Amino acid sequence: MLRALRGHPLTYLTLVAVAFFSAFPVYWSVIVASHDNAALAEVPPPLLPGGNFFANVQRVFDTAPFALALLNSFVVAGTITVSVMFFSTLAGFAFAKLRFRGRNVLLLMTVVTMMVPTQLGIIPLYMLMIKLEWTGTMYAVIVPALVNAFGVFFMTQYLSRALPTELLEAGRIDGCSTARLFWHVVLPAARPAAAVLGMLTFMTAWNDYFWPLVVLTPDNPTVQVALSQLASGYVRDFTLGLTGTAVATLPLVLIFVLLGKQIIGGIMQGAVKG
Amino acid sequence: MASPPGGSLRTVAPSPGGPPSTVHPPARTRAASGWRSRLHRLDRQASPYAYVAPFFLLFAAFGVFPLIYTAWVSLHDWNLLSSDNPFIGLDNYKALFADGYFWNAAFNTLSIGVLSAVPQLLLALVLAHLLNRPLRAQTLFRITLLLPNVTSVVAVVVIFSQLFGRDFGLINLVLDGLGFGRINWQAGVATSHVAIAVMIMWRWTGYNALIYLAAMQAVPKEIYEAATLDGASSLKQLWGITLPMIRPTVIFTVIVTTIGSMQIIAEPLLFGAQVSNGAAATGGTDRQFQTLALYLYEKGFRSFEFGYASAAAWMMFLLVVVVVAFNYLVVRRMRGGLDA
């Protein structure tokens, strides 16, 4: 039995090939980022990292407001992450464990909103930001992202499975208000899923590009906006662009390497009922 | 759908089987307990709405309202720089229908969408099938597959623009070495579409594979064992057993991928910006890879014709609905070979 399931050499060959193509572009960016521009013209090109990385990083910080951009991105992604974790757990608790009129309709609406192409409303959204005088500030990037349908749905799924109803009923009998139940019973129980949601949210917020590009100014960018400026100058400086890429991607790759297993588990969990 | 009005009843009458002694907390003055129970009822009735409210309020303000207001703006000659925005009825739509650039963008969107989505989902399906068995280094494979999805879209395009570069690009170097000659990927319609489709595929194939894998793991293993005994090949099992069993997931990914494909913007925008800042919003010097979303961006945020761009947005919305409905029907009709 085991022999039949153990996997054909061809299976491994295919998977190794795909893994190679998945990883190579990232590896290549590190190679380019650690050489100078002249090395790119060599035939054959260098296939091992060089010693120029920190000099290039210095150049990146001299060319673009990268320090400010990194700070902005940390503030934006951090705030959004905490907020999404909190409000998604709150709404997820209500949908999973509380009975109220219209619950199913509202939950269905939540799922449907995941499929609404909200990007098409970008012009009035921009006009709204002008009205609120938020253009050019981080408010414009943070506030619309403070909670989203995916998070609510994700936490609903988790809590309806993992939070024992008896525990809540016991709390009720002891005279707990709903808010106290949330703080003392739901939040601790939600922690594993909320952590996964937090990682996914941080990644998405960190990588968000189009809306920040539209609503922010070049002198006060997030890291992705700064990176796109860096890479699209009139002078084609690939080393500069790819060094910026490495710097901008590094925080995420670190998170991913440390917590990749949990992130994958989270994506697969969220998908099962999708 | 029809839940009982307010869960409050349950406090007074505990769920059947519960201990009868807890019907009401005793030993309090009448007034206090009346006030308390009213507060308690209010808590149980209002709290759920308060808890889901943040999401719905936020979505209403920053999701639904802009989308609907887009329709209103699209009926006006609305420019960011002018103070007067006269109502012009359907003129923006008439102009849009006559605009060759709009249809060019529509064609590019569909072309890039098909080129990226179809191979992406097929490959994801095969990869998930390969991973859905006991393997060595299972976790390592999964992490590597998801690595592209962690990279930002900007990073992906910067990296691939270098790889697809005309003079120093690694891909052309290999092609040249194999004797095929160099390709100016940016310049042509077909070549630029392929390059952009590769970037999208690279970023999303692993992600979709994991979603398929999650669904596949819910399929009972006994079915495969029986099929193996019957001599069905691995590929036949994928087509005959797995696909029908995970059809809801397939439909889901097809819809999500379609909606995503119809809104592709960052890839062509950044790919164009690699050539010159002027070519960014137009999707190449000849608009050879300008997508609909990019066209919307050009009209809305380069020339600030809000009315006209809003009309384009609504047309896109209709197009999304049509294409999604079409794909949904196609996928729903697809059936595996061994379907009985």
Automatic annotation (TrEMBL), chain A:
Q: Which InterPro entries does the protein's record reference?
A: MetI-like (IPR000515), MetI-like_sf (IPR035906)
Q: Does the keyword Transmembrane apply?
A: yes
One Pfam family this sequence matches: BPD_transp_1
| Alphabetically ordered keywords of this record | Cell membrane, Membrane, Transmembrane, Transmembrane helix, Transport
Q: Kindly give the PROSITE patterns that the UniProt entry links to this protein.
A: ABC_TM1
TM spans, by residue? 12-30, 66-93, 105-126, 138-160, 181-206, 238-259
Identification of the protein by name: Sugar ABC transporter permease
Q: Which organism is the protein's source?
A: Microbispora siamensis
TrEMBL record, chain B:
What keywords is this UniProt entry annotated with? Cell membrane, Membrane, Transmembrane, Transmembrane helix, Transport
Q: Which gene encodes it?
A: cebF_1
Cross-referenced Pfam families, in alphabetical order?
Answer: BPD_transp_1 (PF00528)
Task: Provide the residue span(s) of the region labelled Disordered.
Answer: 1-32
**Any idea where this protein resides?**
Cell membrane
Q: Read off the InterPro entries from this record.
A: ABC_transporter_permease, MetI-like, MetI-like_sf
Give TM regions.
49-72, 110-131, 143-163, 183-202, 245-266, 306-330
Instruction: Give the matching PROSITE patterns.
Output: ABC_TM1
What does the similarity note say?
Belongs to the binding-protein-dependent transport system permease family.
Chief localisation class: membrane
The record gives the membrane topology as: Multi-pass membrane protein
Ranges where the ABC transmembrane type-1 domain occurs:
106-327
Protein's recorded name: Sugar ABC transporter permease
